[in-house]
Amino acid sequence: MDPERTSSAPESSSSSHEASTSSPVRHEEEAAVAAVERRENDRTSQEHSHNVEHRRALREDTWSCIVVLITFWFFVAMTLILGVFGASNLQLTPNSSILIKPNVWFVDHIKVEQINEADSGPVLYGLYSTPPLDVVKIWSENHITILQTSTYKEWMYILNEGSQINISYSVASSSSLSLILIVSKGSENLEEWIADPAYTNSTLSWNVIKGNGFIQQSITEKSTYYVAVGNLNSEDVQVNVNISVKSYLYNTSEAYYTCVVSRRSCSLKLLFPSGNSAVLTSQSVGGNDWYVKLSYGPRWITYVVGIGGMSFVMFWAFHYLNNFQSRSLDRIVQDQRAPLLARKDSDLSSWGSSYDSVSDNDEEHEEPVKDGEYNSNNVRRLCASCFDAPRDCFFLPCGHCVACFTCGSRITEVAGTCPICCRNIKKVRKIFTV
Q1: Does the CA dihedral 63-67-70-72 come out positive or negative?
Q2: CATH match for 88-299 among 3.20.20.80, 2.40.170.20, 3.30.70.20, 2.60.120.510
Q3: What is the C-alpha to C-alpha distance for residues 7 and 17, in angstroms, rounded to an integer?
Q4: To the nearest 10°, the Cα dihedral for 136, 141, 147, 151?
């Protein structure tokens, strides 16, 4: 028998035995590494889906805010069109002059039309600038009336500042009964004042009159005023009231537009952006009153540009905030996604360094490795995650020892489960060799 052939047989059997022994260890290590990589990939995919959902939520919030803004601006526009610059009915008294100067940014034109039937009506004037209030009109009205018990009689006037009311009265009564004469601002009538004398504080003059007398009242504010005489006695009383009014009207001599409202509806275009003025003036004709409807035509370009401009500004602002939040979120995610394994030096000088961490005792007991042979003890002592440091820790409560203390701590922090048995890790214990 050949001795060389005999000696090689045990060596080959020993080599096959070591290979078969190292095979389960390799499978175990590969399974551990695959489990760690799978968990890292799952975490990465979850973070990516979370980022996508976050960006989608930001976009939805942006569009929701834009819709709310457009709705809010729509209600503001309707409030201006139907409320602030909505149509209104005006009562014009003899020799009254009303200045109309709306905001040209929201009003395109004004329209005036007469409501009641009258032979002649007020006149609408258009001027390039605000006219002076320097035209003086003086007229008087004489009223002889018999006031029955608990009745009143009133006369209304629209006056500008600087005007004046002069009232002379004569109460005809055999028993010298007294009446009440009031000069007040506003459209409230004497009936409301009698029911509650404290109803309004706009009463300019309150007088108890009997016999003959004279009352003078100056006007300091543009408004509607009324003169009223009431009888609170138990019998009828005859009274003669002469009202002389000195009224200041707007000067319309430089008007470029003139329209008599009684003949047709009058419409005046407002100049943009300089603006212009309109004056509605009535004449003194037999003490008649005129009722007209004043309406404003909206400047639609302002509302459309306002809605579009505000929507663009808000969209740009939310887009900028979304990009800023997305960048901040990406930085946070990158900071949180610290690598589970430390970067290994790719330099060739670091190769083989894994064997430098083997303890001296292990080196003493380590059997020499022949060429072509694989020592399973070397691989079995290395960390299954980094294959660089020895396995010097174990997990509790499962007790598996497959990683170095550094990698084991990171696995506990990131995954929280053992890569071998997938049980929850409560603690990591370091193994000290003596």
Answers
A1: negative
A2: 2.60.120.510
A3: 16
A4: -30
Tokens at residue 276, please?
């212009």
The label of the residue with tokens 């006369």 reads 155
Exposure string over 359-393, b if 16+ CB within 10 A, otherwise e = eeeeeeeeeeeeeeeeebbeeebbbbbbebbbbbb
Enumerate the domain spans of the chain: 88-299, 381-434
Helix (H, G, I), strand (E, B) or coil at 138: strand
Helical residues (DSSP H) of 288-349, grouped into ranges: 300-336
Q: pLDDT per position in the chain (434 positions), as tens?
A: 444 444 444 444 444 444 444 555 566 666 666 776 776 666 666 666 666 676 676 667 667 777 777 788 788 888 888 888 888 888 888 889 999 999 999 899 999 998 877 667 789 999 999 999 999 999 899 999 998 888 888 898 999 999 999 999 999 866 678 898 989 887 665 666 666 666 556 788 889 998 899 999 999 999 999 899 988 888 888 999 999 999 999 999 999 999 988 767 899 999 988 889 999 998 765 567 888 999 999 998 888 887 777 777 777 877 777 777 666 656 655 554 444 444 444 343 333 333 333 444 444 444 444 444 445 556 667 888 888 888 889 988 888 888 899 898 888 888 888 888 888 888 888 888 76
CATH number for domain 381-434, candidates 1.10.560.10, 3.30.40.10, 3.40.50.300, 3.50.50.60: 3.30.40.10
Complete edge-to-edge strand list for the sheet that includes strand 212-218: 135-147, 237-249, 164-172, 212-218
Strand partners, 181: 207, 229
